[in-house]
Amino acid sequence: MENAARSPVRIRPGSVVVIAILTLLAAVSLTPLWWMLVTAFSRPELTLEFPPPILPIPPTLVNFVQVLRFGQMARWFLNSAIVSVSVTVASVFFASMAGYALAKKEFPGREVFLWLYIVSMMIPTQVTLVPRYILVSKLGLIDTYWVLILPLIASPSSAFLVKQYMMSLPTALIESALIDGAGEWRIYAKIIFPLAMQGLAVLIVMTFVGEWNSFLWVLIATNSIEMRNLQAGLTYLQELYPMRHAWIMAASALSAIPMFLLFFSLQKYFLKGITVGAIKG
Amino acid sequence: MTGSAIQPTIPRPKTNGLLRRIAKGRSGYLFLAPHFLFFALFFLYPFCQGIFRSFFSYSFGSFEFWGFQGYRKLLQDRLFWVALKNTAYYTLSIVPLWLLKALVVSVLLFPFSSRVQTFYKALFYLPHVASVVIISLLWLWIYNPQYGLLNALLKLAGLPAQVWLGNRILAMPSVIFMQLVMGGGTTIVLLSAALAGIPPEYIEVARIEGARQSQVFFRIMLPLIKPVILYLVVIGTINSFQVFEQVYVMTRGGPEFSTVTLVYQIYDRAFLTFDFGLALAESVVLMLILMALAVVQFRFLGGGAVEY
Prior knowledge:
By secondary structure, chain A is mainly alpha-helical. In chain A, about 70% of the residues lie in helices and about 0% in strands. The two termini of chain A are about 30 Å apart.
């Protein structure tokens, strides 16, 4: 460490040791995830072996086949997909409009709206869990797709994030479009939205993954097993078959692999999203 | 941009000025409306209702005003204090541990090129992409007393096996250990970004002046990233205070209430024992605790922003 850190630019021989330490630290946290994949693709008997196999030899899909034969698994996957896509599309669309209004529009009360959003970002969502449940049950939405989608559309931090991003877009562009006689909606749809796409991509990725991995709200807002998402389904599977570890790992892999693929292909947006939208934790 | 700055403000007639401005800004309201309506309905309204209703007893359809009785009942409940203690135990352990892990990793990463940094940041962030439920399920098996990896390793080392999650002294440390190993990726990414933001001249000058490595770290780097550390402590505390999934999947609050946390208790009161009044009161108390913590932390650790 001494050698490597002495120069902020060049890499010295001591950095080999540093790399080794970093790799070891990362490996420790990645091993359980690797183990999940190995178990999912191995024959169930290998689950109990010690030391656990490093590679799934011979690889098999038997766990996936069995777990998918368990009726609800495909449904949970579908539910996760439907809800995540719906929430992401609606939430990013609405947040982009709200962010645009807060960043570029002049209207009385703008500061009040902005203040409300900022204060709300600091209030943990868990605090509103019970009253929100009472509200949706009065609206008769329990155990429907609506209850999994509608309450999650309007996140104050998303609107704030877009607002911050849109502040950097040139106002002159909007003004000249107005002078050219373009309507408000046209300006938003044809100029603002495409320009903000770079910033919105971060929000899309963060919202989608957050929704895919959500658990507590699904757990309380649905009654029937068919309406659960993958996360809530996984806990149900674990309760039913606590000893079928290979099944549970296969089901977990079904949930995790799409997110891993998304992460590897859009890594830039993920890492940017953490720094930009750090408020989401 | 500059053109609009030097434009003279158009004098408006005093009467109907506000109405005119509202009419003029109507497109702003229209763009804001869809988001704000959902926000008001599913956040602001339940939030106000939650506070209002916490003054009512609300159980199995009965609904009557009881003032601060719910709060009194909550504060007299021994289990509430157990949950508060557990949550504080968890938070006070994991927030400093993550910070320490992130400091070590990002300081070690600091000298490397941004490509190497990005690679390791991605590795450390990867577990966050899998859900907390999955991570907890994985570790449930690692901690399994009969078949788990951890006990197999202990046996190899000739040590006695442990019932990790079934022991009231070991359960919470086991959850914390899992979080330490798997988590902290967000903290690492943010701290690395903060370190990368330090002007390199500062460090070079210090070295030319003959500062030792430890001096560079404690005297230059640490003070400069202090605002980010403060932010991470506040956000980390708020997030960790809401720990739920790990408890639900791994222990259900047991054994002997040793891992019951505040959010788990709220869930339990509202949806397992249907005591909404008490659950609402506890939600409000949780919010007050978090706000107080944020204020205290800003006061205690704040002390003036650092300017580069």
